[in-house]
Amino acid sequence: MDMTALVSQLLFTLQLLTGYQVSAPEVQQKSRAEIGAIVCPTSKCAPYSAYREGVVYLSHDVDLSIPKGRSTLYHELVHHAQERGTHKGQPHVASGDACSESVAREHEAYAAQNQYLSEIENSGLRAYYNGRCW
Ligand SMILES: [Zn+2]
Fold first, then answer.
1. Sheet holding 55-59, edge to edge
2. Is residue 88 part of a domain?
3. What digits encode the pLDDT tens for the residues 112-134?
4. How many angstroms is it from 25 CA to the middle of ligand 1?
5. How much is the pLDDT for 91?
6. N or C: which end of the chain has fewer CB within 10 A?
């Protein structure tokens, strides 16, 4: 399945499972080092995936032919929906506290990813969040 078709399918699933509605983001596939240079230039991270300002970054290490890889893309689509989408017709309202806002977004994204893994992929895999603010 090509990227456009996979993203459309995952966004349809996202709307069904969570109530989020959003148009497709741009998806760029890069190396982990290239993604790190974009999303954390000072801390030298090397993430498998990230979301920034309308763009989902996926590293070449994310294998979209398996449930874990698709769930990683799904997680980043949740962040896109949080930033650009509506939830059951309502726009997102920021709390004003950047740290707790970030933690809340990650909790929601991991919960959605785990729901996707169990209900859509019928997989026993679980994704975990370490709960830190940065
Ligand atoms: Zn996340």
1. 26-30, 55-59, 49-52
2. yes
3. 999 999 999 998 888 888 766 65
4. 15
5. 78
6. C
The number of domains in the chain is 1
Residues spanned by the domain of 83: 3-23+63-120
Q: Give the tokens for residue 54.
A: 């309308």
Over residues 79-106, the mean pLDDT reads 87
Q: Does residue 90 fall inside a structural domain?
A: yes
* 79 within some domain: yes
CA of 75 to the centre of ligand 1 (A): 6
| 69 assigned to some structural domain | yes
How confident is the model over 65-80, as a mean pLDDT? 97
pLDDT per residue over 44-70, tens digit each?
889 999 999 999 999 999 999 999 999
Cβ pair 29, 59 in contact under 8 A = yes
Expressed in angstroms and rounded, the spacing between residue 79 Cα and the centre of ligand 1 is 7
Distance 78 CA to ligand 1 centre (A): 8
